[in-house]
Design a protein that fits this description.
By secondary structure, the protein is mainly alpha-helical. 36% of the residues lie in helices and 8% in strands. Strand 3 and strand 4 form a beta hairpin. The relative contact order is 0.16. The strands form 3 sheets. The chain has a 3-stranded antiparallel sheet. Helix 6 packs across helix 7.
Length: 207
């Protein structure tokens, strides 16, 4: 199925182990393990998929006619667009046709990050919005409660232009949620995070 109207809840597991796995994926040391079932919401929600030059297995499976140069990136970086229904060109009737060789961006994407960070998915992606509403993290331990508080503390300032080196808020909710995951350690303190603290850390990491 391409999306689901099912209102039954789905277990997202515990948030602390989820965060550890998500951080490893963002570092390039692994990939997410999302219990998607038959859901293909992220494959059919008008998302551009970035493929990097070193992803030879993925590029070998993706026809040249559906690859486009990635704006602002060096030669060799490409993106996959989507059709008039918002579907990835590699999505078939039974799911991803190149799943074993899917791009790194797909291996890292995990819609549970919206639940963990409290960032609302973009409204132009209703299938993802519906799926996100179904996720429930397991009852919290003290560790889990601390992780959620840290993630949401960082996410709370990510709509403020002052949190970014260039003063420009990322346009997509998935970008802001990923930033909150990557900077969650900033939220470990007891006081609210200042946007300037996020800006300093983002500047340091991009240097």
């Amino acid at each position: 199925m391409t999306a689901t109207d099912d209102d039954t809840t789905l277990s997202a597991g515990r948030v602390a182990p989820w965060l550890e796995q998500m951080m490893a994926a963002l570092r390039g040391a692994g990939e997410t393990d999302v219990p998607c079932g038959e859901c293909v919401a992220c494959c059919s929600s008008r998302q551009f998929v970035h493929v990097e030059p070193d992803e030879r297995a993925a590029l070998a499976r993706i026809p040249e006619e559906v690859r486009f140069p990635t704006p602002g990136m060096p030669a060799g970086h490409v993106v996959l667009g989507y059709d008039e229904q918002g579907r990835c060109p590699m999505l078939g009737d039974r799911g991803c046709t190149i799943y074993e060789d899917r791009p790194r961006a797909c291996r890292v994407y995990d819609c549970r990050m919206f639940v963990a960070t409290g960032v609302e998915p973009d409204r132009d992606q209703p299938a993802i919005v519906r799926q996100v509403r179904r996720w429930r993290f397991e009852p919290e331990t003290a560790e889990d409660a601390g992780v959620l508080a840290a993630l949401r503390s960082v996410a709370a300032v990510l709509d403020d232009p002052a949190a970014y080196p260039g003063g420009r808020v990322p346009s997509r909710a998935s970008q802001r949620a990923a930033i909150a995951v990557g900077l969650h350690e900033l939220g470990r303190g007891a006081t609210p995070i200042a946007p300037a603290a996020v800006r300093v850390e983002l500047t340091r990491r991009s240097g």
